[in-house]
Design goal:
Elements: H1 2-10, E1 21-23, E2 29-30, E3 46-48, H2 85-91, E4 100-105, H3 111-125, E5 131-135, H4 140-149, E6 157-161, H5 165-175, E7 179-183, H6 200-217, E8 220-225, H7 238-242, E9 245-250, E10 257-265, E11 273-279, E12 282-285, E13 304-311, E14 314-326, E15 334-337, H8 341-353, E16 363-369, H9 381-393, E17 401-403, E18 406-407, E19 413-414, H10 419-428, E20 433-437, E21 451-455, H11 458-466
Parallel strand pairs: 4-8, 4-9, 5-6, 5-7, 7-8, 15-16, 17-20, 20-21
Antiparallel strand pairs: 1-2, 1-3, 9-10, 10-11, 11-12, 13-14, 14-16, 18-19
Helix pairs in contact: 8-9, 9-11
């Protein structure tokens, strides 16, 4: 018995409370195995870790000693415009040397087209330094055909169809480009690392190697990333932490409008949005996209209302249209396009109970936006409710009229942010009347020459615009 006890004590032991399992996605640790990481919600990413000991020692010679902060040349990190205004707007001014940018978006949204235009524009603006476009999904001939179609041919733009990381790094070493675009990071793999292309291990190796090359050469790097079914970026969450800028390219495949947002930006703001028009000639920057979301009808029609939404810091004009028709079905149909369906259902219920529009209970309701724009912010509640009420009562709203405000379940109209900015945009586009929430925190919000009425409830707003309280 003593011998057996002694043999047990000489074996490997581990503290009962010490973490022995770790998530390969986010680094979360636990004392027992679980199928799903509670930190990053990844499945099958928790693995047992061995005894880790420090293996890296201090370098005997420093490649670049630390400097006093005011001796560092800040001009090395200045923005370089790309000649594509909407992209520069989102990035904060342009591309930064040494920055690594991750561009993500759904298939077919236009990521490759935009980046090919960026590569050509940068090559033309700086002919003394080449631009490298690494494609792992298409052949060089396919990329050239697209470049010819969108007029993105430049003498300083180099193409390489590669999927091996070692070959890609060799192309960078040979050309020493000012900008490298990798399309896409999930298609490249390293022979030095196990795993299939697109796996967690391969994506880590590819991203880390390209980031190291970009920082060492002071070269701008743009990585194209795939997205999952729910719209999040595919691969480990660490990918977004490693890069400097994360951009999300959005758009409906049935619409020409494309929106570019910066989810993360170490060099600029993240509350701005870039607008592009996708056509046969590529992507065109839209400095004023409001005309895409408003119908061209000139006569007053029941069931239409204009609102001003804020995409980041940018005001956009959008039109909400509603159609209410009698129904013989036990459960009348509700159809929504471009809006949040549960929120529209809530507004229909508020109109029934608070505004006494009981006819909606036995009517079909169809609510949509013009131009394929998607509206998610609560500030559009008032315009949706007014459009539905106008359609139900067969009374058109006044001309040159806008409305915005959040509607609560009690029928109250709540204040919304950016009131002054919305009203200035409405005045610029020729609107002369507006209904806004009462008790706004912004003083003197009404621009000169624009009639603004404040309301505290939905019923008060309906009385103003549908019962002769406001003229057109």
């Amino acid at each position: 018995m003593a011998t057996r006890t002694a043999s047990r004590s000489t074996g490997k032991s581990r503290s009962k409370g010490s973490p022995s399992f770790e998530c390969t996605e986010c680094g979360w640790q636990t004392v027992k195995w679980v199928g799903r990481c509670p930190e990053c919600q990844a499945w099958g990413s928790v693995e047992e870790k061995g005894q880790v000991t420090a293996r890296t020692t201090a370098a005997s010679q420093l490649a670049q000693p630390a400097r006093v902060i005011h001796e560092v040349d800040a001009s090395e990190a200045e923005f370089r415009p790309t000649s594509i205004g909407e992209l520069d707007r989102v990035l904060g001014g342009g591309l930064v040397p040494g920055a690594v940018i991750l561009m993500a978006g759904e298939p077919g949204v236009g990521k490759s087209t935009l980046l090919l235009q960026v590569a050509s524009a940068v090559a033309r603006a700086h002919p003394d330094s080449p631009v490298l476009y690494l494609t792992g999904e298409e052949s060089a001939a396919q990329v050239k055909k697209r470049a010819e179609r969108i007029d993105a041919i430049s003498d300083g733009l180099y193409l390489a169809a590669e999927s091996d990381l070692g070959q890609a790094l060799g192309q960078v070493e040979k050309l020493s480009p000012q900008l490298t675009i990798m399309d896409s990071v999930q298609t490249f793999s390293s022979a030095e690392v196990d795993g299939a292309p697109g796996g967690v291990t391969q994506i880590r190796e590819v991203t880390a190697s390209m980031i190291e090359s970009a920082k060492r050469r002071n070269m701008t790097m743009i990585l194209v990333g795939h997205v999952t079914k729910d719209g999040s970026i595919a691969g480990p969450r660490m990918l977004e932490h490693l890069v400097d800028v994360v951009c999300q390219f959005e758009g409906d495949r049935h619409s020409r409008l494309r929106l570019l947002r910066a989810v993360k930006n170490r060099y600029g703001p993240t509350d701005d949005v870039g607008c592009f028009d996708l056509n046969e000639d590529g992507l065109t920057s839209l400095a004023d996209p409001s005309g895409l979301f408003v119908s061209a009808m000139t006569e007053r029609v029941p069931g239409t209302c204009i609102t001003i939404t804020l995409e980041g810091r940018r005001p956009l004009t959008a039109e909400v249209q509603a159609l209410v028709a009698e129904s013989q079905a036990a459960q009348p149909r509700r159809a929504v396009s471009g809006l949040d369906s549960p929120r529209v259902s809530m507004l229909l219920a508020v109109l029934q109970r608070r505004a006494k529009l009981t006819a909606l209970m036995k009517s079909e309701a169809y609510v949509a936006t013009v131009g394929g724009v998607k509206i998610t912010e609560p500030a559009a509640d008032l315009s949706i409710a007014l459009a539905v009420a106008s359609a139900a009562l067969e009374k058109p709203l006044p001309n040159r009229f806008v409305a915005f405000g959040e509607v609560g379940l009690a029928g109250e109209v709540r204040p919304v942010p950016g009131l002054r900015q919305r009203l200035e945009e409405a005045q610029r586009l020729g609107f002369t009347h507006a209904i806004v929430p009462r008790k706004s925190t912004e003083k003197d919000a009404a621009p000169e020459g624009m009639r603004v009425r404040e309301v505290g409830s939905l019923a008060e707003a309906l009385n103003l615009v549908l019962d002769g309280g406001q003229s057109g």
